[in-house]
Amino acid sequence: MVQAHAASRGNEKWLKCEDIEKQFKKKYALHSTCVQGLAQKLKANIATARQLRLLQKQANQPITAKYPYREKKYQTVIWKESALRWRADGRLSLSNQRGTPPLILALPNRYRGADICRAELTWRADHYELCVTIDSGIEIQETQSSGLVAGVDLGEIHIAAVATEKGDTLLVNGRALRSSKQLRNKRHADYTCLLSKCKKGSKRYRKLLKSKARASAKCYRQQRDILHKASRHVVNFCAANTVNVLAVGDVGDIQNSVDLGKKTNQKISQWAHGRFRRYLAYKGASLGIRVEDIPEDYSSRTCSQCKNVKNNAPKGRVYTCSGCGAIIHRDLNGACNICSRAKYGLYGCVQAHTQMYLRPIRRSRAFDTGRKLPTQVGTPRL
Ligand SMILES: [Zn+2]
Q1: Mean pLDDT along residues 219-237
Q2: How far is the CA of 153 from the centre of ligand 1 (A)?
Q3: Which of 77, 108, 109, 139 has the greatest number of beta carbons closer than 10 A?
Q4: pTM (2 d.p.)
Q5: How far is the CA of 330 from the centre of ligand 1 (A)?
Q6: Average model confidence (pLDDT) for the chain?
Q7: Cβ atoms 303, 333 nearer than 8 A
Q8: Which of these ranges, 242-251, 263-272, 369-378, has the smallest mean pLDDT?
Q9: Residues within 5 Å of ion ligand 1 by Cβ?
Q10: How confident is the model at residue 1 (pLDDT cuts 50, 70, 90)?
Q11: Domain residues for 65?
Q12: Least confident of 248-252, 259-263, 300-304
């Protein structure tokens, strides 16, 4: 489809996606909705590229956004609702073109009989993954009309520091996430080193490439798991404290700032704050919590007790105020300030009173010390 569309771009009239769909309908042993899904995906990609090009043109920038042109090795196959059917034996049947046998898959028991609206078969490094969209029946709640405001400071050592306007705070530890990232980078470097000694395209080269992709994919899954669990902790904490607005410190443009050095640059580029924010937004929506962005400049430098502003960003994990002598957890200080800005429009009106400390995941068994982890109220660790 991409090639057909690319070829038509030389002509005066570009191919319409509906025409492409018609052209490809019976070419493959796929269900007609799969072809339709792929054509719609292409249409959406073209629309995105067009809009990006327009924005670049308006800003008088060189036009770098390209229309889809690259041939993909693996293409995600999409099945829509009409092509999905639960069989009597509890397995899911994904229909193909008439006359060809369907793809029959066994899903985990908890999904058996679920109302599946869409299924996508994707390739992940070394295996296929079936992504299903399920109608859970949970309705998105309207934002609760009354409630507290809470601020979230996103960080590297603590994935999230949350503070409500009443001063209840939560810290979600990010060390598991960081160690997963560090392992990924180490593996990546090792494989790159090995690959550099191989002949490009050789059997060993291909084998190593596959292993590299597999290692990356595993770390990606670990990180996704940690981020999901961490965001669940944050949203549950907000629900328990009757929060209805969750203000997230906006760190969107941090990558565009100055060069911070090799190590910090790598950390920042791998910091999945956008993904974490999305997880917060959709988890919050099912509980009536609205997530909004708040600019967070100077939030970590300002003292949440006396509004004194430091000249430099605080070093280490503790914020020590030179004005009033307060010693506050650095991330909680930031979270209090973000909450204060969201509620009152200025910093320094919210102070931390209570503190909860959570890890997003339990330690893996290999390192399990047998100690019970604090699940509710933890001791402050400064
Ligand atoms: Zn102070």
Answers
A1: 91
A2: 19
A3: 77
A4: 0.77
A5: 12
A6: 85
A7: yes
A8: 369-378
A9: 303, 305-306, 308, 321, 323-324, 326
A10: confident
A11: 2-134
A12: 259-263
Cα-to-centroid distance, 169 and ligand 1 (Å): 19
* 371 has a pLDDT exceeding 80: no
The verdict on 157 and 112 lying in the same domain is no
Q: Is residue 192 one of the residues assigned to a domain? A: no
> Distance, CA 120 to ligand 1 centroid (Å)?
53
Domain-located, residue 92: yes
Distance CA 118, CA 37 (A): 10
Distance CA 50, CA 299 (A): 38
pLDDT for the residue numbered 87: 92
pLDDT in tens, 22-56: 888 888 888 888 888 889 989 999 999 999 999 99
The verdict on residue 204 lying in a domain is no
Query: 308: CA distance to ligand 1 center in Å?
Result: 5
Count: domains in the chain: 2
Query: What is the C-alpha to C-alpha distance for residues 137 and 115, in angstroms, rounded to an integer?
Result: 9
Residues 157 and 70 in one domain: no
Query: Separation of 295 CA from ligand 1 center, angstroms?
Result: 21
Decide if pLDDT at 91 tops 80: yes
Q: Which amino acid is at 367?
A: F
Count the neighbouring beta carbons within 10 Å of the beta carbon of residue 138. 9
